[in-house]
Design a protein that fits this description.
By secondary structure, the chain is of the alpha+beta class. The protein is built from 9 helices and 4 strands; from the N terminus they run βαβαββααααααα. It has a 4-stranded mixed beta sheet with strand order 2-1-3-4. α1 runs parallel beside α3 and α1 crosses α7. The structure holds glutathione. It holds the Pfam family GST_N.
Length: 216
């Protein structure tokens, strides 16, 4: 029995966990749902949503933040030092503040989404991106979020930056990061991490083309 990641067939809230498991060499299987098949699975999920990580003994772990941290610990990608761990969380939460700004637009009629996202990007979104850009430009010489080695926080920021330029968020241009050079360089640095690069060489179709090196 291996781990199972229950989610839809896109990066979304499951991608950091998949990367952690993959980089850590921990075998896992994806269990993909569609809009048509999820209603049957929903009552089996602890909180009625995915992602859910099914452990080899059948226990089910919900909430992406918990799954990310658990898989990061299994893979040696969660800092042991308490302050470094807090630095990792700090950056992940700042990135989430930015991404959360855009989620309500998914519930608007399709023709209104692009305009709504452009307005967010010109206002609060820009403020958060500037903060993120400054934060990343002030990292130490190794350029990782939490000290001198890769952690799940680098993967979290990388996956969010890649998703936002992937075309899934209509209204947000694929060239967005040209205005934020430190974020662009950071995204490319993490995309070139051997374990990350290897993952997208294997899973680089569709949306995930934007997760490859030099896509931005
Ligand atoms: N806070 C939860 C949110 C999970 C969530 O919103 N999952 C969505 C997919 S991204 C879902 O399961 N939607 C189907 C539903 O709610 O029925 C997490 O981070 O895991």
């Amino acid at each position: 029995m291996s781990y199972k990641v229950h989610y839809f067939d896109f990066p979304g809230r499951a991608e950091v966990a998949r990367l952690c498991l993959s980089i850590g060499g921990i075998p896992y299987d994806d269990v993909f749902y569609t809009q048509a098949t999820f209603p049957e699975a929903k009552p089996k999920m602890p909180f009625g949503q995915v992602p859910v990580l099914e452990l080899p003994d059948g226990k089910m772990l919900a909430q992406s933040g918990a799954i990310e941290r658990y898989t990061a610990k299994l893979a040696g990608l969660y800092p042991e030092d308490p302050l470094k761990a807090a630095r990792a969380d700090e950056a992940v939460f700042l990135m989430a503040d930015f991404m959360d700004l855009f989620n309500p637009a998914f519930y608007l009629p399709a023709e209104e989404r692009a305009k709504a996202r452009q307005e967010i990007l010109a206002g609060k979104g820009k403020d958060k991106l500037q903060l993120l850009n400054k934060h990343v430009s002030n990292l130490g010489e190794d350029g990782y979020v939490a000290g001198d080695k890769l952690s799940f926080a680098d993967l979290g920021i990388f996956t969010s930056l890649s998703a936002i330029i992937s075309g899934v968020y209509d209204g947000i241009p694929p060239t967005l990061l040209d205005d934020y050079p430190a974020l662009k360089a950071f995204r490319n640095k993490i995309a070139n991490e051997p374990g990350v690069k290897a993952y997208y060489e294997k899973h680089g179709e569709g949306i995930r083309a934007a997760f490859k090196p030099d896509s931005a």
